[in-house]
Amino acid sequence: MGDVYRQEYYRGRAEDMRKIVAVDQTVATGLGTYRGCVETYDWTPLEPTLKEQKVYCPAVGGEVITRDLGAGANLELTRVVTP
User: Fold this and answer.
1) Domain contains 20
2) Is the pTM of this model over 0.90?
3) CA nearest neighbour of 42 among 51, 55, 33, 31
């Protein structure tokens, strides 16, 4: 926990960063409750107002919540489709 790393790097064009905020979290959404989730904080120095908090859960294989901290918008997983 607390690790900070680059998600991608192309100087001046893509300098996305991520910090692990919490691990082994339980998260409830309108779709269900998920355990073992990882919470992250994402940002880029190229766009100082773009800051996101995300929650990834292994039960769905990806992101279940995104909070746009700059705009104050929240996105939540509403459906899981399996092939």
Assistant:
1) yes
2) no
3) 51
